[in-house]
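@channel sequence for tomorrow's demo:
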Amino acid sequence: MRIFASFRIAGRALRRNKMRSLLTMLGIIFGVGSVIAAVSITTGATKQVEDKVASLGQNVITVFSGSFNSGGVRGGWGSATSLTEDDAIAIQNQVNNIVAVSPEVRDRITILANGQNWNTQVQGESPEYPDIRAWDIASGSMFTDGDVRSIAKVAVIGKTVVDELFPGENPLGQMITLRNIPFKIVGVLAAKGFNLFGQDQDDVVLIPYTSHMRRITKRNFVNSILVEASSSDAINQAQNDITILLRDRHKSQEQDFTVRNQVELMQMATSTAKTMSMLLSVIASVSLVVGGIGIMNIMLVSVTERTREIGIRMAVGGRGRDILVQFLIEAVTLSAFGGVLGIIFGMVASKTVSYYTSWPTITPFVWIGAACLSSAGIGIISGFYPAWKASQLDPIDALRYE
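structure tokens (generated this afternoon):
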């Protein structure tokens, strides 16, 4: 019963000074709210980035030309013409733990169709490309290995191209012209939206890579090679095997290609969001510390104001431990209520930001629990010294206090 009596006394003391109690809680409210809002926004942003990376396909390894030293000058993506169709075939035939390979040839080309023109990305790919990219065919079908071998004039187009050239029409079976060469539309890709780099993935035309190389651009090299590993556990081994194979095939002193996997892309893409989350959490933690100092300050004032009350309680049999518990309960109550209000404030703030900016927000439950524990911990830490000071008062001196 003694502990419940301490709670009642603490509640009455806090209610006597409602405004002061509320102002004391503001530091905790804004501190916890800032942490919850920051974590919700950055977690949502990280999840969005992860989803966009996942939309590029699962267990994907990308081999692209460039990133080499030539006369002391270091190049980058596309700065060399070192990858060939034979490299892709060698990877498919000689590297274990892979399930699909697609040589890639890319160019922006103005296409003509239905009395309209549209400048878009034309990609030469293999039939495995939709499987590698986890991209469904909305209607029709993907071109086949036979189309690749026969250098067929067939195409699969994205939703944006459909909207621009065939609004309200069925594009299947119709023709598009690429640099005066007619291609028959055999399939339409499912809508996929913008990618991680802000590019419209649906603004694309896919044709057999052999058709792109021999009919459109007359080139004998590919821009990159997409490889799908058999599992996430096999990515690193497959990446190493591809690197060794291409070094042996190219027999050059300097590596004239770069191999990257999806895990590396994910880490690079989410590193900024994680850094921002850490920075905002540190700033918000400062608010929590300031809130704890505020609670300690107010509790010290409360001890001074209630010195005579403490003396009376001790004179009628109250022990120092009872006084300690009472003031600790008051401090913890202030911080706990502040923590709950801070959680509500943080969630409302994050949803408001999401509503006006269309940013996704996710509030992890573990952070809600951590906020509750941290606010209670701050109450105990900041309230202990004032409570201990109150428990050490001499009853006679306390009764004499005016």
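heads up for whoever presents: The radius of gyration is 33 Å.
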